[in-house]
Amino acid sequence: MGLALIPAAFTIVQSFFTVQPLNPPTRFSGFDNFRRLFSTDAVISSIGNTGLYIVIGVVLSTVLAIFMAVTLQKNFFGRSILIAIMVLPWALPGVVEGIVWANIWNSNTGLLNSLLTSAHLIDNYQVFLGQHRLLTILAIEIVQVWQITPLSTLLIMASLQNIPNDLFEAAELDGSSPWATFRRITLPLIRPGITIAMVQALIQTLNVFDQPYILNGSATAGSSLTMQTYFISFQNLDFGEGYALSLLMAVATMVISLGVLKLVYRPVEF
Amino acid sequence: MAPTRKYMKAAGMIAGATCLCLTAAGCSSGGGPASTQTKGVTIKATMAGDPPPKAALDAFTKKTGIKVNWTTVDWDSLQTKISAAATAKTYFADVTDVDWSRVGQLGKLDWFYPMEKYLNTKKMAKDMPQMDSFTLDGHVIGIPEDASFMVTTVNKKLFAKAGIKKMPTTIGDYTKDLKQIKSKGVVKYPLNIPFAAAEGLSTYWYQTTGAFGGTILDGKGRPQFTSPDSAGYKAAQWMISALKNGLVRPGSINVADSEGQQTLMAKGTAATTFSDYSGNVGSLYNIPKSSTVTNQVEYIPTPGATGVAPNLNNPDGVGIPKKAKYPNAAAKFIKWLTSAKKEADFAGANGKDKVQPGYFVPSRLSAMKELTNSGHLDQGKKLSDMLESSTKPVFPQGAPSWYPEFSQAVYTNLHAAATGSKTASAAIKAMSEKAKQLASGS
């Protein structure tokens, strides 16, 4: 508890101080760090980018995870192998994934361009990253979704395992279609699992760093709030402002997570 | 369990996870007092490059009684570790990287021992032309470990295919040649500029600015590129125009410096790099495993506004952090590492078994001469001459303490101009305002 609370308290307190080794001494500055954050274009732009990462990442990973969990719930040949393969991206470090996907998105030598050209779908190699903000964020977030979906799938699969089989059998006897069974039985009963999956996806996407940094450098179109925390703290050596941004991100994580809880979570009793 | 309690429990878990995230902010711990001991000690060298051969390190240990534990960390992570350890006032290494661009920052923060306290830096400077890139207010923050500098490379075969026999000596001729190569269909995009938002783009602009006959900042850190007729302004416009006019591959907006050299220049899809790295001909372009243009690429004197322009320094150095456990032993190691004999060995003058992987251009002129005479440095004579006569620091007064923040403004704005999200003039204005703000200390 001390390991968590002491640094947390330290961060909260220091966010109200000017902590700049290049401009000593450390001194109380009230809300100055927060004010400067909101007057920095790069931070404002990163708030928008991070919002897009969250929306795309949470929605896409949750939908994919539900689909994969429902598919993998059935017994079929090679299921265990498929689950083992599915988990692999989750086990890889973000940096490694960034490098792997850089070879796919690359505008000069990338796999995707090569495939699209071979299939005669494009004549010239396309630029996927850096040119358009939304396309850049989508391309980057797909990489993160690839990483976080396995855990979301496992969480939802765990919820699925808890649903008594009698319910599905009864629905089948009553002539319920597979879609109606999914909508009226499966989906409501896996809401606790979906909630946890969404919250973990939210925490991951709000803290996205490796993928945009590897794939898109420090470019404004795509840079995330965590990247700004890094630049402010370790590049500009303005630790007070870095603490302030970390604190705001922590508060945002809590508030949005509570919102997801309120919106999605429903208690389930069998 | 009541739903409210479930919410509370879940909320508590999220709060706990959030607090754990905040531990990354960290606390600090002090290091022990430094020891002057040099015998029977183990020093830690944390560097961005690979270590020298084990036999060489063993020989150093046998001779001095100092054991060296060399750790390799990628350059970016290493810079963060240096900052984090120094801020936390904790031990992290006895010897580590000092990049030229951080000399102002590291010097002002007093995070490194002044090297003149341990070594005869004045004597060393006579053999190390880039020592001034590591000097701030008379103190030497690090000893140059290599003599990397920016240089123009051309693929002579592709130039010849376009009917160009005489190499350009001015930017005007160079641009004309690029257009000729394109119009003759030799290659679609003749020029390699790494437009990814990274340090390599800033460096490219500095070198181009130097070629246009100007500097980036004055002695007080004020921008010298605001006016449209300034060298920096012209250099930025020239780079962006080259992209817009199809001389540079559109996909270059996401290409970092090394990637451009490896995938465009080394594969013959680009004919020239205006701001390349010294040593690339021998270490990349003439290596059949990584290149399809062996024996085609040459260094040429940098084309300038009216004639040959300077080559800007881009070296790495080694220094001793203030929290080092054994600074005297560390200094002995640095003296050995940057001695003429060892630099020549590590760069390959005396056999492959003595080579330090990734080490190409010695920081000492004497080592460079030995290497050139041995014939083991491709086009060594040209590099040697440039090192001796035409290299100069990016910031003659030393890199300002706020350089990293300024550089980020440079590469993000130039990148934005390249992608079209900003005009070239808006990008230059933003870079200039950032420099003014940083120089004024506000």
UniProtKB/TrEMBL annotation, chain A:
Q: Does the keyword Glycoprotein apply?
A: no
Q: Where in the cell is it found?
A: Cell membrane
Q: Which UniProt keywords apply?
A: Cell membrane, Membrane, Sugar transport, Transmembrane, Transmembrane helix, Transport
Query: What GO biological process terms are annotated to this protein in UniProt?
Result: transmembrane transport
Membrane spanning residue stretches: 42-69, 81-104, 243-265
Presence of keyword Transmembrane: yes
Q: How does it sit in the membrane?
A: Multi-pass membrane protein
Query: What cellular component terms from Gene Ontology apply here?
Result: plasma membrane
Classification via PANTHER family = BLR7065 PROTEIN, SPERMIDINE_PUTRESCINE TRANSPORT SYSTEM PERMEASE PROTEIN
Q: What is this protein called?
A: Multiple sugar transport system permease protein
Protein's organism: Spelaeicoccus albus
Q: What lineage is on file?
A: Bacteria, Bacillati, Actinomycetota, Actinomycetes, Micrococcales
TrEMBL record, chain B:
Q: Membrane-spanning regions, if any?
A: none
Report which superkingdom the organism of origin falls in: Bacteria
The protein's matches in PROSITE patterns, at most eight in alphabetical order, are given as:
PROKAR_LIPOPROTEIN
Asked if the keyword Transport belongs to this entry, the reply reads yes
Q: Which Pfam families match?
A: SBP_bac_1
Keywords (A to Z) from UniProt = Signal, Sugar transport, Transport
What name does UniProt use for this protein? Multiple sugar transport system substrate-binding protein
Q: What is the lineage of its organism?
A: Bacteria, Bacillati, Actinomycetota, Actinomycetes, Micrococcales
